[in-house]
Write a structure and sequence with these properties.
The protein has 483 residues and is α+β, with helices and mostly antiparallel strands. Helices cover 29% and strands 22% of the residues. The chain is built from 13 helices and 19 strands. A hairpin with a 2-residue loop joins strand 16 and strand 17.
Length: 483
């Protein structure tokens, strides 16, 4: 029997969806500049000239954010210079082995204090509402410098996947508000997995020699081309109750509409609460999310233990062993841990309006809906699939901007381990343009979920179902290519 995976680069037929991820806003000459960038020496003065805002605008943006209003009385002078690619930087001080504060200080020294934001002090939605709003108000008043900077601006995010997704989600609101252009995002990888960063050429971790690397990263963020990325809206409709300590990207919503045209296995809750968010890389439910949840709680309670990527991964592996991922207790029926017992899966295929019920394999203990080729610190669990296997299963080649999620399952820790070292592919379940999960509690008090590395404990009802609806956001996100 032919293996579904191939290390070779088999070409695909015209049935495959074409890739649309080249959006080079600076032209071919800028791409050439990326070659051997590590050897390029950029002075602080050159970098500032390229990315630093005029002082009157830096102060105007800062004051508007502090006052939480977008009106400004700032006036320009004749001596300002419009930067070619103005940069604003967001830093998560909890990322990077707790090196975030030092990295923030270095960034502020390189460009300016007002262009670097600590995410514990200034949220990205506040910057978008008041900071960008300040530039838009000044531009409407005839300030050409403010108008040019608003149009040319790029964002740099120093943090992990969850932080990057948080900023991208807030920027996506500009499309809803018809406040284009949306600034593209560059990544300074300070998280544990950094799968978004890997997928767009920014690497799996920040260099140990980070002081010199920061300058090169800022320069690269100002010249690199831009790619498109699908983003996915998730709506959780649950019986009355609350999610304890939800991730930043998951917010309460009044929209709790359940599509009752689908077969419902459990009971509809008489009263409902809703949570809504956006993810860019993956959503998962099951044992992998439970392990991630344990790790994140330990990191928050004992930050000194999780002081770097290597330590993080060791602790992460320990949680995988301690929570039954590798060995189900003999006193329990292994089937009790299978998601098939509590979950029903429906999907919509690309360009289809019809829901299709997809069976969940009995042995699967984690289900992942993946948008990118990178999961679990750079692994590709979907695999590089052969053309004949794709055609047999009705799949297409996976891309980051094709409007599809790849849905796969992980059976248990040993299976997941072989998948992570890419000896085998994961259990392929489906490709989908929309997903509906119905989760029935029964004896399960909680289900563990995560999106883009941010886990949470989802409370379950014994009597009523919880619903998870996933659909693509109409507007794609813009991410700067680092390679």
């Amino acid at each position: 029997m032919d293996s579904p995976s191939s290390s070779g680069g088999d070409s695909l037929t015209a049935r495959m969806i074409p890739r649309h991820s080249s959006l080079d806003s600076f032209g071919a000459m800028k791409v050439v500049q990326l070659v051997n960038l590590a050897s390029i020496r950029v002075s602080k003065a050159e970098l500032r000239q390229r990315v630093m805002l005029p002082k009157y605008l830096r102060l105007a943006i800062r004051d508007c954010i502090l006052r939480k209003e977008d009106s400004s009385s700032a006036s320009s002078s004749s001596s300002y210079v419009i930067p070619e690619v103005p940069l604003m930087v967001f830093v998560n001080p909890k990322s990077g082995g707790r090196q975030g504060p030092l990295i923030k200080e270095r960034l502020q020294n390189l460009i300016s204090e007002e262009q670097v934001f600590d995410l514990t002090e200034v949220k990205p939605n506040e910057f978008i509402r008041y900071g960008l709003g300040c530039l838009e108000v000044l531009a409407a008043q005839g300030d050409d410098c403010a108008r040019e900077i608003r149009e040319r601006m790029r964002i740099v995010v120093a943090g992990g996947d969850g932080t990057v997704g948080w900023v991208l989600g807030c920027l996506g609101e500009l499309n809803v508000q018809n406040r284009q252009p949306v600034p593209p995002v560059s990544i300074m990888p300070l998280g544990t997995g950094n799968d978004l960063s890997r997928s767009f050429g920014w690497g799996g971790s920040f260099p140990f020699a980070w002081k010199s690397a920061i300058k090169r990263t800022l320069y690269r963020a100002s010249i690199a081309p831009v790619s498109r990325l699908d983003s996915w809206n998730i709506l959780i409709t649950m019986p009355s109750g609350e999610i304890e300590d939800p991730p930043y990207s998951l917010k309460t919503t009044q929209e709790c509409i359940i599509d009752q045209s689908l077969e419902i296995a459990g009971e509809l809750p008489p009263s409902r609460n809703g949570y809504e968010g956006v993810f860019y890389n993956y959503f998962s439910i099951g044992m992998d999310a439970q392990v991630a949840y344990g790790f994140h709680h330990l990191r928050n309670e004992k930050p000194n233990l999780a002081n770097g990527p290597i330590a993080n991964k060791i602790i992460y592996s320990g949680y995988g062993c301690s929570q039954g991922w590798f060995m189900t207790h003999c006193t329990n029926d292994p089937g009790l841990r299978g998601l098939k017992n509590i979950m029903t899966l429906h999907i919509k295929k690309l360009d289809s309006s019809e829901w299709e019920k997809v069976p969940v394999p009995k042995s699967v203990r984690a289900v992942v809906a993946l948008n990118l080729h990178s999961y679990g610190s750079g692994r590709n669990p979907w695999g590089n699939l052969k053309q004949d296997y794709l055609e047999k299963r009705g799949f297409v080649e996976a891309q980051a901007d094709d409007g599809l999620l790849e849905i796969f399952g992980l059976k248990q820790g040993w299976h997941a381990s072989f998948v992570m070292v890419e000896l085998i592919s994961a259990k392929h379940i489906a490709q989908a343009a929309a997903i509906r999960l119905e989760i029935r509690g029964g004896e399960w008090k909680d289900a563990f979920m995560q999106m883009d590395g941010e886990p949470w404990k989802q409370p379950m009802s014994k009597d009523y179902s919880t619903f998870v609806d996933i659909k693509r956001v109409p507007h794609q996100s813009l991410v700067v290519k680092g390679d």
